[in-house]
Amino acid sequence: MKRSGKEERDEGECYAKRKTGLNAFVSVSCYAFVRLVHVFISEEQKEAVFKALEEGEIEYVVVSASSAATGGTLVEFPLPTDGVNDVLDSLREVGVDENSYVVVGSAETATTGTMERLQNRYASDFSPLATAELRSKSRDMSYDLYSFVWLVAVSAIIAAGGLLVDSPAVIVGSMVIAPLVGPVLTTGVGVVTDDRKMISDSIQLQAVGLVVAIVTSAVFSLFLRVTGFAPAGLAVSSIELVSVRLAPTMITVAIGLGAGSAAAFALTTKGPTALVGVMIAAALLPAAATVGIALVWGALIVALGSSILLAMTLIFINVAVIATLRYLGYRPDERDSDSGEVGPPPSWTAPRFAAVALLALVVTGALAGTFVQLSFEREATTSVEEVIDRPAYDELEVVAVRTQYDGRPFDSSRTVTVMLSKSSDRTYPAVAERIQQRVVSRTGQEPEVRVRFQEYQVASPRPD
């Protein structure tokens, strides 16, 4: 079969990228579009399997083989990646069960009489990876513990430095390094495939990663403070990139859900997940670094708010990963994923019960704190808009409204910071008080209200 010009160009580009060592950044076109499937079948299954393959226009070869128990036949055939699930489902319908010997490998290219028709058939169809491929791909993203801790620590140092110098570019660089996407995705895969060991290992890695990020950023911040490379009197909450991570907001909730869903969807395709992993790190790593910085500077309330933000973001990312994989149709096998046999449910020992109870307590507390914070933020924003909509403030425009906890830890008092823009030299001395009164009337709480103004000039067009 003659290959198309596009296939030849794609292969040439991929070869060049591999030669230059850019494997981690190879685009989707460089991943194998062809899968080589090997299926071991019994003599009784041969006729039904061959018929199913022929009806699907799949060319195959047969290799005589034997197993330890009975003789059989090894059937080998190439498929476009998007057709693997469809064909395996057809084979299961004719008797090839979940316990059969099935190997799905990658191939650079395949030349058969029907391959082009198969590629055209599945080109416009979205077909997620088979469950076995999904598990294999998620495991390939895992690091050994030493490498994982090292990369998280380095990325946390860079993120802390980026926050302290208020540099978004440096923070983005730290996100590229962080390997946090691996344990997040393997947790979701473990849940949807009922692999309890994968779930346990992945959750432990998530916890280790966040602890390492917080501790490392705290040690690095302490070093900067002790050696005088950072101002001792620095108010961390005044740093712009820190101030946006003082408490959960509706935007951060949406970011967590979006990052988790995008990562899960990318995992189910034949393409890479490296770039989506940056989004996972963007949602988690800066918040973890903020906690470490705040602890060193004694800003306990900042550390508390960022910790809640970190916990909620992690929860929403995991929920989004699991929900997306469920939506795409992934379900656990009838057999236990680890042993291949149906096993009894896990026993509820005291340590297991305590761990689950602690996790439930943390999740419940974080959800409750987030709900309270989001509710207050919504009411505060509405209050500001109602005040600024009055005719006396026609020249003012709302730029941003931020709310954060203030005072000692576990103190319910808050601060509302309002950014307003204006185009004249007119002053508004009573606007903060009026906003405060409106917030009190809507929420029953009396926060401290701070108003900042941004002035700008307007050049109107000259009349003709």
From TrEMBL:
Question: Which branch of life, at top level?
Answer: Archaea
Q: Which InterPro entries match?
A: DUF389 (IPR005240)
Q: Does the keyword Transmembrane apply?
A: yes
Locate the transmembrane regions by residue number.
Answer: 145-165, 171-193, 205-226, 246-267, 274-302, 308-328, 353-376
Q: Which Pfam families match?
A: DUF389
Q: Which UniProt keywords apply?
A: Membrane, Transmembrane, Transmembrane helix
Protein name (database record):
TIGR00341 family protein
